[in-house]
Amino acid sequence: MPARTLASTLFVLLAVTGSGAAQSPSSARGAALDQSAALGVLSAINTSEIDAGNLALQKQVTGPVREYATRMVKEHGENNRKVALLEPDLAAAPAKAQMAKGQQELATLKALDGAAFAQAYVAAMVKDHTEALRALDAQLIPAASTPAVVTHLQTTRHHVADHLEAAKRLQSGDR
Questions:
Q1: Of 20, 71, 104, 155, whose CB neighbour count within 10 A is largest?
Q2: Which distant-in-sequence residues (6+ apart) come within 8 Å of 50 by Cβ?
Q3: What is the C-alpha to C-alpha distance for residues 125 and 171, in angstroms, rounded to an integer?
Q4: In this structure, are residues 121 and 65 in contact, taking their beta carbons and an 8 Å threshold?
């Protein structure tokens, strides 16, 4: 399973960064995503975090993990509502790849229950938010071409960093 997770992570990172054999002419030589594709990726990230948080709530996690899952559903939902107003391209290849990655992670989490689920969910949140920060810094923020989108992505980056720190605290047992 770790090899499969690594492979899927590499696939998504290649898709998000525009690297790999299946490049379109516009993404060759490391050209950045356009703004609407970048927003599509962000929407896919948000959707994956909402889905994982809802799954955690359905699996009846308790205590701080439940509080974290509730927060992820609420805050990523709010972000997705704002992104929708900025015209994301949900059909862009990087957005589709990000959605596929999220669905694969969700399938892995669905197979778990109890403490094993809670531990895997928190680990996934650390990984996902780390990857989201990298994507924001390397691709999504640089793709922004309007002040409103730049501001939204910079604000999102701040929230994602906060989500990551909270997940790391949960993972280490600090609350």
A1: 104
A2: 72, 73, 76, 77, 80
A3: 10
A4: yes
- High-pLDDT (> 90) share of the chain, %: 79
Letter for the amino acid at 54?
A: N
Rg (CA), the chain: 16
The string of DSSP letters for 54-105 reads HHHHHTT--HHHHHHHHHHHHHHHHHHHHHHTT---TTSHHHHHHHHHHHHH
Instruction: State the Cα–Cα distance between residues 8 and 4, nearest whole angstrom.
Output: 6
Q: Note the Cα 117 to chain centre separation in Å.
A: 19
Joined tokens for residue 166: 């909270």
Indicate the average pLDDT of the chain. Answer: 87
| Eight-class DSSP state of 31 | P
Q: What is the pLDDT of residue 139?
A: 97
Task: Say if pTM beats, i.e. exceeds, 0.90.
Answer: no
Sequence-distant (≥ 6) Cβ neighbours of residue 119 within 8 angstroms? none
What domains does the chain contain, in order, with CATH numbers?
A: 32-172 (1.20.1260.10)
DSSP 3-state assignment of 103? helix
